[in-house]
Amino acid sequence: MVRSIFLVLSDATGPDTDAEFNRWYSKKHVQDVSKVPGVISATRYRIEKGVTVLPGVNADSHGYVAIYEIEAKTNEELEVFAASLRKGIESGAVDISPTLNFASVTGSLCVPITPRVTADS
Fold first, then answer.
1. Smallest Cα–Cα separation from 75: which of 109, 106, 107?
2. Taking Cα atoms as reference points, which of 25, 29, 37 lies closest to residue 78?
3. For a FRET experiment, which of 2, 14, 52, 65 has its CA 20 to 30 Å from that of 75?
């Protein structure tokens, strides 16, 4: 089954906080968010720079992306997830580090519009 995703692009506040940002995000924040009701899994990635995928296609300017698989398909279910995430942040159950450049964070809730396609399908 293809699940919806919560896609988060982020950066540290600067080069001097990058190591602490990555320690916090990988060891603390991902675990906190994974406990939010509806989250199935979480994976973080570093966005590689300097590799041309296709001419004219630029890599995102952020340094990192986190992909959370979530159990939500309707707007109502996405709203419930988002409210649970906000509640977790407000209560402190989902920790936010001062090393996170919160002003540049982008987050999108994405619902599948096709079935999963694999090389052998």
1. 109
2. 37
3. 65
Whose structure tokens read 């979480």? 42
DSSP states along 91-102: HTSS---TTB-G
* d(C-alpha 36, C-alpha 81), whole Å: 8
d(CA 80, CA 100): 25
Long-range contacts of 116-121 (CB under 8 A, 24+ apart): 116/2
Q: 103 is written with which tokens? A: 């002003």
- Separation of alpha carbons 49 and 58, rounded Å: 9
At residue 1, does pLDDT exceed 80? no
What pTM value is reported for the model? 0.92
Cβ atoms within 10 A of the Cβ of 100, count? 19
What domains can you pick out in the chain, each with its CATH number? 4-110 (3.30.70.1320)
